[in-house]
Amino acid sequence: MASVSYFFIAVVFIFGCCSNAQLSPKFYASTCPNLETIVRRAMTESVIKELRIGASILRLFFHDCFVNGCDASILLDDTPTFTGEKNAFPNQNSARGFEVIDTIKTHILALAARDGVVLLGGPYWTVPLGRRDARTASQSDANTQIPAPFSDIATLTANFASKGLDAEDMTVLVGAHTLGYAQCANFRSHIYNDTNIDPIFANFRKIGCPASGGDSKLAPFDATPVTFDNDYYKSLVGRRGLLHSDQEFFNNGPQDSLVTTYSRDNAAWRSDFAESMVKMGNISPLTGTQGEIRGNCRFRN
Ligand code: HEM
Ligand SMILES: *[C@@H]1O[C@H](CO)[C@@H](O)[C@H](O)[C@H]1NC(C)=O
């Protein structure tokens, strides 16, 4: 009898312990049973219009989560009396996909990001739901807490660790760069000045990214920018990483062996990616009565 009640207490303790205990895949099961269908339909329409949008929404979710948790703070517009995160250095003229989120609703960034990945061939995962919306945002935290493309592996690792994501999570998640594009200003110094780069690749990228000017010209991260595959990791092994930060993951350093593994084992990476996305989505959510549920995702109520 005693052991039974100890077991019961242990169960309550384990399930009652965590700050994200209230996120649940069934959060909207009775209040909005069609939520997943609604989001999937909106994402499907958007991705058909522009394949890249799946990448852009995935990145929005990442940039939201890394600034004081996954609380939709990135969606808030600047107003004369409020400074949000949209004009922080990593987001300005770079973060995109806000119009798609307008058409759905704010607290489903996590679902929209998952659907974008799925629609471009990526793995499915069950999304814990119930994140409420922040009433605050921080441009300065967005400037300092979103990883920079000029960082080295030690800085990146510390940055992810500060969000509760270990080095394996980081190396798995950066594989998101199998989708999408970067602007010349973010990879210019890598292709012109870095030594850990395939010279043929560097010369090829210089054609689309002059030594000066053309800051916003785009290049894909890997050879298949609208297909979710492990080509990104093959590029790193071939020293064809686009950003300085990308190549840091294969630079005679601590992440080389995991990058090699993923370059050879697409299935392993896909299942690890799904797992780490759930972990990223659990960074300091607002739950219960915290924050609010915005009527318009661009503004506080
Ligand atoms: C290791 C740290 C990371 C750094 C330094 C980094 C940096 C960047 C930069 C500079 C761009 C190009 C932005 C532009 O030129 O406009 C970019 C694009 C992108 N990032 Fe990352 N990133 C990192 C990790 C991640 C993670 C963890 C995810 C998601 C899980 C992600 C998803 C994306 C996607 C999908 C794009 C393409 C967006 C588009 O085409 O619209 N990144 N990243
Ligand atoms: C490459 O490095 C040189 C010397 O530090 C610097 O003058 C130049 O601006 C750099 N070029 C690019 C494209 O970053």
UniProtKB/TrEMBL annotation:
Its EC number is 1.11.1.7. Ca(2+) 2 binds at T178, D222, T224, D229. It catalyses: 2 a phenolic donor + H2O2 = 2 a phenolic radical donor + 2 H2O. This is Peroxidase. Its cofactor is heme b; Ca(2+). Disulfide bonds join C65-C70, C184-C209. The keyword Secreted applies. Keywords: Calcium, Disulfide bond, Glycoprotein, Heme, Hydrogen peroxide, Iron, Metal-binding, Oxidoreductase, Peroxidase, Secreted, Signal. It comes from Pyrus ussuriensis x Pyrus communis. GO terms for biological process: hydrogen peroxide catabolic process; response to oxidative stress. It comes from the Eukaryota. It is found in: Secreted. Residues 1-21 form the signal peptide. The keyword Secreted applies. Residues 22-301 form the Plant heme peroxidase family profile domain. Removal of H(2)O(2), oxidation of toxic reductants, biosynthesis and degradation of lignin, suberization, auxin catabolism, response to environmental stresses such as wounding, pathogen attack and oxidative stress. These functions might be dependent on each isozyme/isoform in each plant tissue. GO terms for cellular component: extracellular region. Heme b binds at H177. The record marks R59 as: Transition state stabilizer. Binds 1 heme b (iron(II)-protoporphyrin IX) group per subunit. Binds 2 calcium ions per subunit. Ca(2+) 1 binds at D64, V67, G69, D71, S73, E85. CDD domains: secretory_peroxidase. SUPFAM superfamilies: Heme-dependent peroxidases. Belongs to the peroxidase family. Classical plant (class III) peroxidase subfamily. GO terms for molecular function: heme binding; lactoperoxidase activity; metal ion binding.
